[in-house]
Amino acid sequence: MDTDRERHRARETAFYLFTQQSLPACKPVLTPGWVIAIFLFMGVIFIPVGLITLRASHCVVEIVDRYDIDCVPEPSRMDKVSYIQDDSIPKNCSHFMKVHKYMKAPIYIYYQLDNYYQNHRRYVKSRSDKQLLDGQKYHDTSSCQPVESNNNRPIVPCGLIAWSLFNDTFEFIREGAELKVNRKNIAWKSDRGHKFGKNVYPFNFQNGTLIGGGKLNPEIPLSDQEDLIVWMRTSALPSFRKLYGRIEEDLDVDDVVVVNLMNNYNTYSFGGKKKLVLSTSSWLGGKNDFLGHACVFVGCSSLTLAIIFMLLHVKYRRPYGDMSYLPWNRKSFSG
Amino acid sequence: MAAASSRKRKGKIRWSKLYSFAACFRPLTSEERPAARELIGRPGFSRVVFCNEPHLHKRKPYKYPYNYISTTKYNVLTFLPRALFEQFRRVANFYFLLAAIFSLFSLAPFSRASLIAPLVFVVGISMLKEAVEDWHRFLQDLDVNNRTVKTHISNGVFVDKLWKELRVGDVVKVNKGEYFPSDLLLLSSSYEDGVCYVETMNLDGETNLKIKRCLEASLCLNEDEEFSKFKATVHCEDPNPNLYTFVGNIEFEKESYPLSPSQLLLRDSKLRNTDYIYGVVIFSGHDTKAVRNSTRSPSKRSWIERKMDHIIYILFSMLVLVSLVSSFGSLLYLRQDMVDWWYLQLPDDNKVNDLDDSNSEKYDDRFFNPSKPVQSAGLQFIRALILYGYLIPISLYVSIEVVKVLQTMLINKDIELYDDVTCKSVQARTSNLNEELGQVEMILSDKTGTLTCNQMEFRKCSIAGLSYGGDITEVDLAASMRMNTDFEPFEFSIDETDGATRSFEPFDFSVSSFSAQNGNARLTQTEGPVIKGFNFRDDRLTNKNWIHGSNLFVITMFFRVMALCHTGIPLEDDNHKTDKLSYEAESPEEVSFLIASQEFGFQFCRRTQSLMVLKEFDPSSMKEVEREYKLLNLLEFSSSRKRMSVIVSNEDGQIFLLCKGADSIIFDRLADNGKAYEQATTMHLSSYAEDGLRTLAFAFRTIEAAEYESWNTIFTQAKATIGPEREELLEQASEMIEKDLILLGVVAVEDKLQKGVPECIDKLAQAGLKIWLLTGDKRETAINIGFACSLLRQDMKQFHLSLSRDAESNNQVKDMKEDILQQIESSYKMVCEERNKEAPFGLVIDGKALEIALRGDVKNEFLQLAVNCASVICCRVSPKQKALITRLVKQYTGKTTLAIGDGANDVGMIQEADIGVGISGMEGMQAVMASDLSLPQFRFLERLLIVHGHWCYQRISKMVLYFVYKNVAFGLTLFYYELYTSFSGEVLYDDWYMTMFNVMLTSLPVIALGVLEQDVSSDICLQFPALYQQGPRNVHFSWSRIIGWILNGVVSSLVIFLANIYILSPTAMRENGFVADIDSLGAITYTCIIWTVNCQIALITSHFTWIQHLSIWGSILLWYIFLLVYGALPPNFSGNAFQVLVEGIGSAPLYWMITVLVVVVSLLPYFIHIVIQRSYFPMDDHIIQEMEQCYKKYDVRDNEMWVREQRNSQRSTRIGFSARVDAKILSFNQQLQQKKLSIYRSVTNSPIYRSITASPFS
């Protein structure tokens, strides 16, 4: 009983304090000491973090190889678009990649497209998540415009994104032996498990007059078509990489990898670039120095600021709570 | 039974005789009447009223409205359209309405619900608020409309009827103390001669009673039964707002009589001293003069809110600009590149031909149609307008509304603003103006009922050159107290000669004796029953001790003047418990005199028409004796005569003239042998006057019978004269007899101030507020109150603006104008000359002069002068003038004004001012109903402005600025992303993130900031009222601040967006090689935004209670929770955000590192700014915060420095109690200095001193 009453009273006092606006409060005041401490602290934290990040980034070995021009035979280079659109010409092409540093497995294979607006609104919206999960059971494909049906039958998977599926393929050969490329688990697990149906098979796909990108094996359910799943996670920026697979063998320095690729995908009509990227990864992901540099920069600036404020504080110290700054003590104050 | 009969007798006294002299000062002179008669029937004077035949007014053309009044803004039908219109008049709301409409046509980049829902919510809440406020108004109307009044139905039967059912032509009977339900024509009253007394405080603020008089012809209608056959027709003017005119005539029993304003009883005035009256309704409901006089309460918006509109315009221009950029970019892409992007399958003119027609139609996308690029760009423009709508803070209005309601609640709940006496607290009636309270620069205050309680107290008197009732004033006391505390520094500052220090001893002693006396005074005040109107403690006079006085005759005569020279009457209590009587008189002053004389043993107990009976205490026999005095003549008080006399003869046949009046008037009329006490009395007078007491001098003379007889014939002759010269003759006659007076003494009565008024005014003055006093009372009263409130002080230069007699009599506007202009110019010249000396000026102006001064061409000069004076007092001003002054001051100075008043006469002023404050607790509710805030007491204004106003101003301005920042920071990231999507209109974030942004993820901290932020605590606000100046000087909401915050938002958005882009693209973001897609990037960027804006508000906040902590950190946590829950929903619902935190970004260390880095970098510019500002350009509140911390740490809060700073902050004040104390100290110091100098000289001149200084060992 007593504790109840006490609790009640405590609640009442708390409410009273609230209405009287006198709740206990902490009122931090920014003193020079605090300022210097905060800047010092930031410097001390950010510089090491930046250095660690930079180190992680430097550990990553990355080989980038642009192949879209090289893979067009000399005579066709004047009119690449008609070359790529001509089905009768074989599109295979070989490239050499030299490993300049030891690469530890897994080595991730990316294809990189530049100047490709996968984030265009018309493009991004042109898909049907429900159809991807339910297949032909889901009839409304209006969101897939302009690629929703062909010959009055729905397309599965419908929409511009699926229709423009990237279809260059890569094979890697080292010293005559084919490097094994693992193309499983390159898509998000949740996508495979929950967004692309296990019983949904491609249907009426790429049967139209206008053929976009790659075709899909109608025997394999969508949940296993990982290339499609990766492709359908649209990129945020017009220059992007997408995961193609993994090489699960280490590559030594000076190894030469021969890439046999099928140069099917048309980036020529809009001047896009195609690149093949081999990269290892660190705990931070790929090779990117920006974060490390930024951290070091922030840390250094903070230290500099700390020193500047320290010097200022020593030289032009304003006493804490100095009354002479109050308006009524200032000479210029005209009341 | 006896009591009843005596009352009846009292009622039958011919009061007209008592006031016969006064009657000649009635404003309407007889010459005007014929002119009025000609007017009847012309346009504007066409109203016809059939008295006692209200049924005739049911049909046209005599159909007039019922007596129903309504002050509501809306009714059931008009509420929806009008309230909606009000809402969409706000720019931002209108924009969102358009956005919502567009969303219906699939133009919008977001889902419909996410655009419409917030709008409905925002508008709905605002409209709900309007509805509730209007409902309250309706209830108040209902209360007034449902009052009852006795109304004649037929055959002389009167029944209760509701006010609202009253019709023109109804005959009503109004009893004593009741309000008139509408404008009535007085038919008869309980008095035989048909007069009645009316209190018009609600109309013009004048407290004295006014006499109304019915026509002789209708005198006979003074019984209920008389009305069964009564019929008359009134022709009169149409309804108009003019309170002091009425033109009409009445046809009664086949004769026509002219009517004048003295037959018209106005709605909202009150019947006093008269048992009942009969009247007929002439104007009803909205036709009444009182209602016509009131203006519809305008909806006020605070200055900050008006400025907010400008900010919205700026944001709008930003919005239009980025939208234009977007649509142009889109146009360029569409013209040049986009056609080549085969993966978009854009309808290309060349290719379409190849396809079958059915397909090409489907490909048509209005936004990206290369064949119609301009149209597409136009559509893109509209889409962009909606997309970047996050730049416009939609929830700003609703958040502000919520915050203001909460602020209002806290103000209403403040226990310090609760009045125990009336059991009322502050009521903010509209919550729109909270922050305006922090920006007030001018206070326009009513006097009666606001500053004073409309109650006179007998305080002091000076009889025969001796002052009674204590000498110490509060000012002296405070001055000496403070000098005592400052004593030590003084001791050291002066020469170390012994003589100098010794010279302080007497002073020190006197101070202590002061305080001792004061303590005694306090003690005696508490003992004994408190007598209303009598606050006099002096043992020399009370308890009949005056009989031991030396000048017994003078004292007796003094009391007799007090008991006889008046127009009051005693009220007989039904229960005779005590032998004390209570009195009723024309002015509360006279009542206090009667009460005082009763206390002294001269009880005025009866009055008949020619006889006044006193119960006197006879010092010789030590018994109470009843003495009768024959009242021979009564020379009435008037504002021009400034004196009043009675001529009485006592039982011995001796004839006395007893006179009381303004001191200057009386002193002029003293006999040579009557000046014995003049000098001493003058001294007392000035000290009384400085304390703000109202003084009257008493004098008498004995008149020989012969002299009286000869004079009386002249006087009766003058009285009998009819015509304009009557006034003059009467004046001459009275002049003849009121001379050769013998001075008895003076009395000082206190127009009792309400509790805490001087202190409050003092604090407000320290806060830099200017206080103007606008009163309907006469000049002397106003000046007295000016002194009592320390608005005026003795060493202040006073300018009195009034019309000179000549100018007034000529009645030529041009002359008057020149007269006033000249006065103004000469005063202003003086102000300019002495400006450097910091000498304060006071300006006193009366209503007539004001009327001239406020005309077009003089107005500016007048206001220029007035603004330069430390205090301004306007007396005898009408309600309209009050409103006019308020408006002009507002317009001329552009400063925020606050008007405070309690009566209906203040309504205009209250509505006109930026903030109108009504005093509740008094009887009238009109002021409260028109006000924005009601206070039970004036003194609460101090805390309301200095604490709550200051807080609210800070809170709202911080809040608005933060809102702008937040929306710019968020909205611009949307724009930057467009640059990377070829301006196609794709959004980086999920729809739901965006909807959540303003509604949940960032709303609570800002509301907490708006409700609970305090820069310094309330007691420090009160200790340093100068802090209040931040509001009027508008440090927190200046354009530089606004631009600064917008820039801050731009910087933050840039940092957030660019850092994310560069860190996350194009490489993998996780160890398993996954790269960031559009959804991951969106979620990560959004996380950075949530962190940044919430940490930013933590940087702004200087007062963290658990509520702030909870809301800030809780909001951030809420985002993660939201992301988890949203991500866990089935993908059908969550779309691309499915599992985004759990599987996508949460496991990437990069995500968390980005968050930390981006938050730090984006806040860094602001942080550096505040560091520099705090360290090298600190503001007042910063320093005081630091001081507070210092003192808290060392617990020496009441140490010298604190006190000194507190005092320094008050230094620049020119009015108020402290200023008076300062002035007093100054004069004390000067005296001291002189004394010291003289002592020093005498010491240095002495040979001993010389020998000491000459010695090298001293």
TrEMBL record, chain A:
InterPro entries: CDC50/LEM3_fam (IPR005045). The keyword Mitochondrion does not apply. Its main location: membrane. It is found in: Membrane. Keywords: Membrane, Transmembrane, Transmembrane helix. The chain crosses the membrane at residues 34-54, 290-314. Belongs to the CDC50/LEM3 family. This is ALA-interacting subunit. The lineage of its organism: Eukaryota, Viridiplantae, Streptophyta, Embryophyta, Tracheophyta. The gene is LOC121218672.
TrEMBL record, chain B:
It is an enzyme of class 7 (translocase). It comes from Gossypium hirsutum (Upland cotton). This is Phospholipid-transporting ATPase. It catalyses: ATP + H2O + phospholipidSide 1 = ADP + phosphate + phospholipidSide 2. Belongs to the cation transport ATPase (P-type) (TC 3.A.3) family. Type IV subfamily. The chain crosses the membrane at residues 91-109, 115-132, 311-334, 381-400, 960-980, 992-1012, 1042-1063, 1083-1100, 1112-1129, 1149-1172. Residues 49-115 form the P-type ATPase N-terminal domain. Keywords: ATP-binding, Magnesium, Membrane, Metal-binding, Nucleotide-binding, Translocase, Transmembrane, Transmembrane helix. Residues 928-1178 form the P-type ATPase C-terminal domain. The lineage of its organism: Eukaryota, Viridiplantae, Streptophyta, Embryophyta, Tracheophyta. It is a multi-pass membrane protein. Its main location: membrane. It is found in: Membrane. Its EC number is 7.6.2.1. PROSITE patterns: ATPASE_E1_E2.
